[in-house]
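Reopening this ticket.

The earlier resolution said the output was attached, but the attachment link was broken on my side. Pasting everything inline this time so it's all in one place.
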Amino acid sequence: MALDVTKVWINTQIRTKDGRYLGMAGTGMDLTTFVHEFIKNGHDGVTNILIDDSAAIQAHPNREYIDLNSQTKDAKVRFTLFNLLSVPQDRVALQTAIAELQAAPEQVKTLFLTLDGHVQLVGLAYLPEMHWLNVTVMDLDKLIGGQIFSSLILVLVLALFVCLLIVTWILQTLVLKRLDPLDGAARQVAAGNYSARLTDKRNDEIGRLAVGFNRMAETIRDNTSLLEERVQQRTEELHSANLQLEQKNKQILDSIRYARMIQSAILPRYDLLSRYLAEHMVIWLPRDVVGGDFYFLQPDDDGCYIGVVDCTGHGIPGAFMSMTANAVIRQVLTGSRNKPLSDLLLSIDEQLRLTLQHSPDSVGLDYGLDIGLCRLSAAEVEYAGCGVDLYLSGAGEVQRLSSAHRGLGYKRRTRRDKSITTYRLPLTADRRCYLVSDGLLDQSGEPNGYGFGRQRFQQLLLQWQSLSLTEQQAKLVEELTRYQGDFPQRDDITVFGFAISPLSRGSV
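Inline output:
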């Protein structure tokens, strides 16, 4: 049964001298009158509340909020001041304030908390003797009065509105209206009208800004006119230079095209090839308009000489070298009946070095050539080479006859001690010979940029044995184009193929 009183209970154990427990004695101090007087402060809008350390309400004007017998209850079922708070942040703030007061009881804490649905000012003081807290809740609306605040706010709003009107009028009259012409003039200058000027000459910031703008517009106009004159002058100079460059370029291209015609003239004509060879194929692809590769067929008393030559360099230097090499080779081969091919190549090497006249001041320059040379007669075909191999295809196989690892005509790069082997092959109708410069074998292609390679070339020859040489020529060009893809051509490319068959004596 609830006694409806507030007491402080004092209990003590009764023990004998030797410490034996006899019982419990206690009494209570009635605080009911004190609590009621404390709560009834007589001020409307002020509420006094007493809470203990755990914020359980010990005294409150609303008796339903008082947590009776709070010391004997479990902490989870106590009715505390936290139950009157609806904002989570307020609970944290109140807990922090209680902890700070327990650590420093001489302080007083004030904070705004939301109680009974609206924000109120709360003051807290700690009573260390009782381990209670005095909580004073002040409703400012009731204490000060909302009407006074409403009138004050209305006056402030009207004053603020009047101030805004005055400031707006001042800005509009003294600043914005004077800035409009500046904005318009700036837009005209940006559009290319450099004659725009401002007439505002008052001695203030905007007036000085207008003077500065006029000077800027004049400077821009002068600089723009000067720049246009210089641009026009440079344009005319560039146009004249371009015309001269086009003329020079046309002259150079015409010269190079004419050089190609001259270089093509040293190549054997189709009717000459057909006269001595029953079947043949030729692929001649200079990297530039002209190049350092060429092929030749030179008649002899007993047959003909066939060869592929790869000179140092490409383009115009390679073309000059090819013309020199062609003249030397034809001179050596003329009247060389019955001489071994190895001796002929040595003669070409000696004569070429004499012709090139390697001088001591040609530092870093060393010119020469690689060559594959065949002699076709009525009885056999002979081959010897320096740097250009011979490929034989027929009877279900492809054979490579290696050339000597040396060049001809070089002053420093060649290994003159390397011997030159001469191969003699019988004439068979089903066998074909191929002389190939390294431009084909070294050509980059496919995704990784590897060279075309000898193995790939031999596999293609084996695959195409049943085709005519004309068909093989078309197939090889197609395969080279596919393999090369977007990679640039690295060097001059020459492939010369012919069938090994007896010469027609009527054509000799």
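Reporter confirms the inline version is readable. The longest helix spans residues 205-265. The radius of gyration is 57 Å.
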